[in-house]
Write a sequence for this structure.
């Protein structure tokens, strides 16, 4: 169709038509995003018995984590959390009836007991708010070397990636912070013939698709978010998790290349069909994973001056580009 139009239309009209088409696409994309969030996200303040299971999980998780955060303060108020306790007492029985044995329900009960214990007797539950480690005990010996040694790799060796390393990387990445601990991330791994099948929906891998041993697809479940204020949280949560997964792979000796998914709704829908995602899942990005070929080259990827990122620092306080 594009080729036919190029032949029929005068050359001088093609540029303005492209700009017009791009301008018309923008509101359509926003409308599609709004409709998806309205379908799979949840309005704030709905009745407990009307909410789907994903809403119950999101609300209970938010509230039990509020208790955990409150009890981790240096000097918690006492009493606190009347509204939190009221919501947990209302939502937990409903969720337990619909999902008996669900972990988030048990965590909600733990938080409710811990809140009551604090408010009534001033005791902090060490299970709900355990002691943390100090910086000196964390064991990082050379943070600069670790971060500087990581580069995006686009030339992989024909070496299999052990499944156990991927499992370990996911476990490490699950330490990522998330909105009130809702952990809405999902990750799928593809190998062999599935790699080009999935990677064809991403535009930045064409020169090395055939070399990718493992391709990861990171998505986020919109069902974990409520209210208009959280409409953009899927991309924030997904970006944090994807970055942590990348560093986890690096720590385990694997190389990777982050592959953005700057796609419109039509391409996102094609990814959902190809990968059998639920309608609630937002594709965030892909990640090529493997062992770098020896030898291999990396992009220079020049970094900005530190004071460009943190402008309150004077030039003299920095050491130039790293």
């Amino acid at each position: 169709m594009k080729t036919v139009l190029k032949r029929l239309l005068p050359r001088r009209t093609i540029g303005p038509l492209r700009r017009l088409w791009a301008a018309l696409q923008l509101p359509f994309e926003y409308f599609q995003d709004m409709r998806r969030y309205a379908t799979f996200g949840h309005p704030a303040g709905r009745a407990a018995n009307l909410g789907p299971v994903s809403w119950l999980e999101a609300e209970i998780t938010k509230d039990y984590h509020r208790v955990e955060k409150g009890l981790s303060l240096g000097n918690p108020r006492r009493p606190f959390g009347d509204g939190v306790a009221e919501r947990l007492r209302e939502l937990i029985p409903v969720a337990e009836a619909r999902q008996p044995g669900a972990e988030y329900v048990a965590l909600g009960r733990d938080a409710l007991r811990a809140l009551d214990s604090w408010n009534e007797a001033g005791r902090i539950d060490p299970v709900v708010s355990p002691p943390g480690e100090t910086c000196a005990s964390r064991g990082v010996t050379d943070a600069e070397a670790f971060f500087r040694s990581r580069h995006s790799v686009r030339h992989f060796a024909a070496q299999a990636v052990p499944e156990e390393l991927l499992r370990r990387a996911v476990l490490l990445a699950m330490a990522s912070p998330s909105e009130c601990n809702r952990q809405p991330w999902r990750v799928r791994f593809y190998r062999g013939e599935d790699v080009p099948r999935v990677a064809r929906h991403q535009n930045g891998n064409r020169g090395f698709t055939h070399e990718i041993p493992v391709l990861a697809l990171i998505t986020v479940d919109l069902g974990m978010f409520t209210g208009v204020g959280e409409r953009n949280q899927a991309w924030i949560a997904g970006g944090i998790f994807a970055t942590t997964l990348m560093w986890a792979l690096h720590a385990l000796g694997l190389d990777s290349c982050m592959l953005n998914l700057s796609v419109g709704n039509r391409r996102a829908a094609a990814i959902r069909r190809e990968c059998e995602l639920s309608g609630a899942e937002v594709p965030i990005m892909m990640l090529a994973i493997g062992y770098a070929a020896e030898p291999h080259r990396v992009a220079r990827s020049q970094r900005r001056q530190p004071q460009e990122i943190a402008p309150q620092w004077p030039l003299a306080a920095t050491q130039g580009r790293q």
Observations:
- The CA atoms of residues 272 and 278 lie 7 Å apart.
- The two ends are 48 Å apart (CA to CA).
- The chain is about 45% helix and 10% strand.
